[in-house]
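If your schedule permits, I should be very grateful for your opinion on a structural question. Please examine both parts with care and let me know of anything in them that strikes you as inconsistent. The record follows directly beneath this note:
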Amino acid sequence: MQTDIDPRSLIGRKAFDRNGNKIGTVDEVYLDDATGVPEWAAVRTGLFSRDAFVPLEPSALVDEALHIPYDRALIKDAPDFGVGRHLSPEQELQLYHHYGLDIAAPDPLPGADRDRDFGRLAGEEDDA
């Protein structure tokens, strides 16, 4: 999704699934803690006023509406964490798994034998 869009401008927009079926209305937008980039949207899905969390990447803003590239059934079955609260890392992980999104693993630290120095204090000399 475009990262230059003000997340507040998403609130109140209609949301549609990959087939053009209306899912509901964007209720809240959640930002990544580290980058401040919009990452998730909570979409109010209707009768029971349940909010479904949807990923903003790879969703797209088209003709003033949020188009989410997933089927309506998958979106409506997303884990429900309630809105208005911070998403924990565990909750985000559940959402990533639910949508089949890959989470980039952190790059390994340089040096294959980095564990050899684990626990050494800064400034200690090798005795060998």
Residues 89-98 form the longest helix (10 residues).
